[in-house]
Specification:
alpha/beta, TIM Barrel, 8-stranded parallel beta sheet, 8 strands, binds D-xylitol-5-phosphate, binds zinc ion
Length: 214
């Protein structure tokens, strides 16, 4: 069963609580929370105080995508703010293995994200320490960019690497009704959709259309 994770990066930031309740009612599986630091990526969003204020608005899991460098000193704060899955970037972390252990030690699911130019080999020696792998199919920083088709090969390769482990394979960037089918066929089972979900008014219809397009 494929999961849909709307990214609140494309939501109305002045009404985030309301937007969260709306995508929850619309049948999303995860809430994808994009944290940007203006250093690892050329954009800035929000941090733990905003996430903890959002937490009471939904019971759906918070899938927190940390586009911050360094991430390790802040992991506990994101856990306390209400993250369920904490994903760090392989490129941002000098000690990826340690960060993954810290996240699991905080009782949260540990994710690793790879930028489009990062090869999947970086995952080889941490496969038994991750719960989720997040393939960036755009260069992180902004919503509304076009899917980079070369990432389909990477998704297929990672699906093989996962084998029978219970690791989720999430894809983020440029996922919409046109691209979702190929992404799922390549092996993804969690799909982030930011602009595709929030551009219209009827979130349930859009999430339904994404599922139908698979
Ligand atoms: C990009 C973010 C994505 C973004 C996706 O840096 O990590 O989660 O919101 O937006 P769309 O779905 O519009 O490509
Ligand atoms: Zn993201």
């Amino acid at each position: 069963m494929v999961k849909i994770a709307p990214s609140i990066l494309s939501a109305d930031f002045a009404r985030l609580g309301e937007e969260l309740r709306a995508i929850d009612d619309a049948g999303c599986d995860y809430i994808h929370v994009d944290v940007m630091d203006g250093h690892f990526v050329p954009n800035l969003t929000f941090g733990p105080p905003v996430i903890s204020k959002l937490r009471p608005h939904t019971k759906k899991p918070f899938d927190v995508h940390l586009m911050i460098d360094p991430a390790q000193p802040f992991l506990e704060e994101y856990a306390n703010a209400g993250a369920d899955i904490i994903t760090v970037h392989a490129e941002a972390d000098k000690h990826l293995d340690r960060s993954l252990q810290v996240i699991r030690g905080l009782g949260k699911k540990a994710g690793v994200s790879l930028n489009p130019a990062t090869p999947e080999g970086v995952l080889q020696y941490v496969m038994d320490k991750v719960d989720l792998i997040l393939v960036m199919s755009v260069n992180p920083g902004f919503g509304g960019q076009s899917f980079i088709p070369e990432q389909l090969d990477k998704i297929r390769n990672i699906r093989k690497m996962i084998g029978d482990r219970s690791i989720e394979l999430e894809v983020d960037g440029g996922v919409n009704v046109e691209t979702i089918k190929e992404v799922v066929a390549a092996g993804a089972d969690v799909l982030v959709a930011g602009s595709a979900v929030f551009k219209g008014d009827d979130y349930a219809a859009t999430i339904g259309a994404l599922r139908a397009a698979i």
